[in-house]
Amino acid sequence: MNKKTFIGFVLGIPLLVLVLIVIVLLSEPKPAGISRGVAYKSAALLLTDRESCEKMLANQKQKYFPENEPVGWYEKYMNFLYEKGYLDSKQVSPDRRLAEGFLTYEDAENLAEALAPEAGRQIQVGKKKSKKQIPADEWWFLYDDLRKSLDKDGQIKDLDVLLYGTPANVNSSEAWTAYTSKGNYQFEGISLDSYIDSKITILVKGNEIISIKGIGSDSVTYKNVWITAGDGTSFHVHLGSVERSFPFDESMGKNEKFVNQLADITIRKGNLQKVTLKKKKISGKVLAVTDSTIEIEGYGTLKMDENFKVYRLYGRFEERSVSDIIVGYDNQEFIVAHGKLCAALLIREFDAKTIRVLLMNSNFQSIFHPSVTLSAKSGMTLTFGSRVVKVPPKAEVIIDTGDERLKDGRIVAAPLENEDSILINSIKRSYGVPSYEGTIEIRKNAEGLLLVNELYLEDYLTKVVPSEMPNSYEKEALKAQAVCARTYAYRQIQSNTYSKYGAHVDDSTRFQVYNNLPTSAKTENAVKETYGKLLFYNDTPIEAFYFSTSCGHTTDGSVWGGNPVDFPYLDGCLLQDGGGVLNLSTNGDFEDFIKNKEYPAYDVQFPMYRWETSVTNRQLEEEITEVGSILNITVTERGVGGIVKKLRVEGSEGVMTISGEGQVRAKLGNKYMTIQKKDGSNMKNVNSLPSAYIAIENQGVDENNITTFHIYGGGYGHGVGMSQNGAQTMAKEGKTSEDILKFFYHGVDIREADNTKE
Predict the structure, then answer these.
(1) 422 phi/psi in degrees, rounded to 5
(2) Which residues lie below 8 Å from residue 162, measured CB to CB, with a gap of 6+?
């Protein structure tokens, strides 16, 4: 190699490297940008939610975007930012092309500074860069800083999900709906189709996806899915609310073996890789359900798989929840694999023939007992583990927490003769030592013994009706009470309040008082003559709330903060022939009404129809401690019938609001209070106001700097549904139980559960 060639070679190497660098730089793809619409959506969701943006746009007369153009999904979010001053419509015009175009550094800087100046200053850019599109990664990095400043309550969350459906592969799906292992979400403006059957991390607020934060494996295993038959060449897999079809491969065996089976299925890049069937089934009465275990008669307590599922197989197929597994019933089968419960298959509707009642102690203060003493006139059997022991007639059995017979979990006591009952000598009720039909289960808990009485629902009702309504009341009133009590119990069996203790309800006022007073022929007949009858609204058993005495008007289903639309049969009415509704929303109108002790209504003759009492600020301050010395109390919101929904309490150290019927009664009631009834008699030792139908008068400050508040009230109870004393008057006037029930529960049907539609 000569000298010239060598020099050229040496000089050419750097040039070649430079050329290669230029080629690499020119061929390297630009970082992905982000549309303004998506960025503005994410910004709006730092401050509010999608529903609020939709309402604002719907109620707005003057629109920012041209009304002759199709509404884009981003319009509601940009509209919110315009209205709140975070976007300037002159600088960022409400234009479809602009919204769908890429966000620039300048756009990002301006928006960030408007939302949170400190975070915005971190992205200051020069003129050369300002008009360039900002890479999506840089926007989301900035967004994390904005989130720290603006989402202090942590409403925006990171979720790891399996994505198994979008409108791209789900027939008749709603637009922008993503179907995931954590539920259904909206994903306006975001591209998700390519991530189907992938594990992804999403950023969400409420049920709206803000962004995709991370992507996991493209191979996923869906656990404990339900498989049904296809057309012979395919089979269907149910994933949440989505049904997917997969081609059948003969190498898998016979198609029929996949029909109605639980399985794990593995999918890679959209292709089915593996199907693992789970076939072992067990069945038995469910004795208890906790967050992680289910106790099944004959099998003991079994753990639930991490991906435990509940499927309803009768009627219309649905994926349900653990709360649909009802203790005391065997209307489901369980599939087991590797020693864990993988799924519950609900194979038939429960018939509500039996109920399980948690028995409280003598003062209804606790569900736990230090010990229990049992006996039965005919004798009884004690079943524990695999042993059955007979106890002689009238002999007492004492069981405490250290009893060896409890080592297998429970002891079940049953009378030797079917017509007999079991006495529980260790507790007392109003009529003395109570006796119980059915069986008594004794279970050991860390806090003491639990007593569960399992019996037929109709037998239960014979001891609820006399405990909830005097047996001296008219037959038709008692029949109305029986239907309400049965409907209430039906709903409570399904509610699973005490499922971890293996019960549906307890025997106190928290549910329905049971076996506190003796039954009678009259109350038994009321139950028998309404056998199986329930109250239905649109084929669903209603919330059959009832209470003692009205103030002349009932209220609606929003009294506890719910949406009245969910309880159309509980809309509140005047308790007179013909019903109707009074406008008692103002304090002045309600005060005139409540001070009228003879306002005509079905309850007018009962002592609690009107009552009044006085209380001082010093007495109230024992319960209301947040505002210092109480200066004044004002009703700021009333519901249907004038019931108080909100109170404003002003004090020397601040102001607070008391919301809800229960809180109003609890906060204003106290042990010093004497309630003066309409008939002149007094009621003492009450820690809660009789009702929240009240008007409050501030009677001023005395020489000791004590302020007295006089309260005018009416009625006894929450005021929702049937007034028991109102029902008594209606029955006396000749109205039937059906007349009474349809007066208090509007638009209902009365029939047996077996006649309901699927």
Answers:
(1) -105, 130
(2) 180, 181, 197, 198, 199, 220, 222
User: Distance between CA 112 and CA 145 in Å, rounded?
Assistant: 10
Chain position carrying tokens 């404003």: 648
Q: Which stretch of DSSP H or E encloses residue 148? A: helix 136-150
Sequence length of the chain is 758
User: In angstroms, rounded to a whole number, what is the distance separating the alpha carbons of residues 258 and 233?
Assistant: 12
Distance CA 463, CA 489 (A): 13
**Calpha distance 343→140 (Å, rounded):** 39
User: What's the topology of domain 156-215?
Assistant: OB fold (Dihydrolipoamide Acetyltransferase, E2P) (2.40.50)
Q: How far apart are CA 477 and CA 291, in angstroms?
A: 41
Domain 219-278 falls under CATH 1.25.40: no
Give the lowest-confidence range in 110-124, 271-285, 618-632. Answer: 110-124
Residues 650, 221: Cα–Cα separation, whole Å:
59
Q: Of 757, 225, 738, nearest to 538 (Cα)?
A: 757
Nearest to 363 by CA among 509, 505, 469: 509
Answer for the pair 106, 86: CB distance below 8 angstroms, yes or no.
no
User: Mean pLDDT, the chain, as a whole number?
Assistant: 90
Q: Residue ranges of the domains in the chain?
A: 36-150, 156-215, 219-278, 281-346, 354-487+500-523, 545-720
Interval 687-706: pLDDT, tens = 899 999 999 999 999 988 89
End-to-end CA gap in the chain: 95
Tokens of 529: 């003559």
| Helices and strands: H and E segment counts in the chain | 17, 41
Which whole number is the average pLDDT over 660-667?
94
Asked, colleague to colleague, whether 156-215 and 219-278 share their fold, the answer is yes
DSSP string, 578-632: T-------SHHHHHHHHT-TT---TTTTSGGGSEEEEEEHHHHTTT--SSSSEEE
User: Quick one: which of 238, 237, 231 has its CA closest to 255?
Assistant: 231
**299 and 282 in contact (C-beta within 8 Å)?**
yes
The pLDDT confidence band at residue 271, using thresholds 50, 70 and 90, is: confident
pTM above 0.85, yes or no: no
Give the helix, strand, coil percentages of the chain, each rounded to 5: 25, 30, 40
